[in-house]
């Protein structure tokens, strides 16, 4: 059941399509008939030449008469084919014009419905409301700009500068943090500087003790 439902539906053949198809079938039949007539005309021409070569003038004349009759039929079928082609073309052209007309009619109907939903008065009202809203916003902006004090204006400018600096800082590449060894190195040097003076002081005290005179 699923496979049957997925099959595309065949296009519906209308009366116009059938009429065009019938005309084309008749034209094809006339083409085949014309081909047979041309073959017969060629054959009768050859027969007339053969009879004349044998001195059979009456038979040659009869072959030419048959050829003439076939040529008349061929002329009529050619005219019928021309009429069929013109009629087929006219029907196809009329169908195209009908489709164009139907498309224009549908588009015109849609346009009318849209115009009903958006009348001229509604557009004018909307434009007036938009203009009023813009004017009101301009008045608010003007009032806000005129009522600010000089200190408030300076504060706003400083805030703007801070925002600009923050934006620029965010765009700069991040600086790498110092390692633990680089941070502890100055402390060790400072400790060495403090240890050396203490040792020197002890050495100086020892020398001073030796240099003192011994009491009796």
UniProtKB/TrEMBL annotation:
The keyword Transport applies. It comes from the Eukaryota. One of its GO terms (biological process) is protein transport. Keywords: Coiled coil, Endosome, Membrane, Protein transport, Transport. The keyword Ribosomal protein does not apply. Its main location: membrane. Residues 20-47 form a coiled coil. It is found in: Endosome membrane. GO terms for cellular component: ESCRT III complex; multivesicular body. Residues 175-198 are annotated as: Disordered. PANTHER family: CHARGED MULTIVESICULAR BODY PROTEIN (PTHR22761), CHARGED MULTIVESICULAR BODY PROTEIN 6 (PTHR22761:SF5). Belongs to the SNF7 family. This is Vacuolar protein sorting-associated protein 20. It comes from Podila minutissima.
């Amino acid at each position: 059941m699923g496979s049957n439902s997925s099959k595309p539906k065949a296009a519906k053949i209308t009366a116009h399509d059938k009429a065009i198809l019938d005309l084309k079938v008749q034209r094809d039949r006339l083409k085949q008939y014309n081909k047979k007539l041309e073959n017969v005309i060629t054959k009768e021409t050859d027969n007339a030449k053969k009879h004349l070569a044998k001195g059979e003038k009456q038979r040659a004349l009869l072959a030419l008469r048959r050829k003439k009759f076939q040529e008349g039929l061929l002329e009529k079928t050619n005219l019928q084919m021309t009429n069929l082609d013109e009629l087929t073309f006219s029907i196809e052209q009329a169908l195209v014009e009908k489709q164009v007309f139907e498309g224009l009619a549908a588009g015109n109907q849609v346009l009318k419905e849209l115009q009903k939903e958006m009348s001229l008065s509604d557009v004018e009202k909307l434009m007036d409301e938009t203009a009023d809203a813009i004017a009101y916003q301009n008045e608010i902006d003007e009032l806000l700009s005129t009522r600010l004090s000089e200190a408030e204006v300076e504060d706003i400018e400083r805030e703007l500068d801070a925002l600009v600096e923050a934006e620029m800082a965010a765009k700069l590449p991040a600086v790498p943090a110092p390692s633990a060894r680089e941070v502890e190195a100055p402390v060790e040097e400072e400790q060495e500087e403090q240890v050396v003076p203490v040792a020197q002081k002890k050495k100086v005290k020892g020398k001073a003790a030796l240099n003192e005179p011994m009491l009796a």
